[in-house]
Amino acid sequence: MKDLSGKVTIITGASGGIGQIIAEKFAQAGSAVAICDVAFEKASALADSLSSAGHNAFAIELDVASEESWQLACAEVVRRVGRVDVLVNNAGINDRGTMMSTDLEKWDRTFSVNLKGAFIGMRAVAPIMREGGGGSIINTCSLASHHGEAFAAYGASKWALRGLTKIAAMDFVDWNIRVNSVSPGVIETELNSGQPYIQPMASLTPMGRNGRGEEVAACMLFLASDDASFITGHDMPVDGGFTAGAAAKYVGKLIAQNA
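Structure tokens predicted for Cyclopentanol dehydrogenase:
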């Protein structure tokens, strides 16, 4: 595990699922962790659990789509621990509408959380990082940002976030702030275990299984650490090889079976 002792990390969407695992791993690596979520009671419970285990963790209620909420959250983090070194923009929602079935209100809401939230967050945190000498921003993208996703709003918002990551990397490079993204494949957590798509996706994934939240967190720990000091503007898929050629591998198997 990377050593993040002395660093301060803000993690959004951190009260459950992958976000909770990221928060736990960052705390265990020595970082002070601000667990930010609209679900404040769940965030507080996680912070209390981590604090009881001897880690520096605290909860902040945050609506990522609100600039005012971001400003209040950042001010609270600075008041408590004095700086921000790492931002993990993990908050996200999914709408399962297609091009023709997506409700425009849901389209706007999905973009508001998945893209606007990260945009506002980066703009709020970057000046604080600059004052502290730099930092690392990590955006949670998705496997959906690498292909024609069935769900229009979700897929489009994640494509846009992957592009925004590169734009921010260039915008903030002179402030010694690195900006990267991580694109998880299907990561099995308590939130999706047993869903009908879990096993089919595992079968299509070249490594033959779905991922674990700990594997996403490990990638983010690396990007947050000084070991990644020359890496910015990149997207790192954590997907068992899916984006590398899942379709080609599947077709290859069919050809081999019928040869």
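The mean pLDDT is 95.
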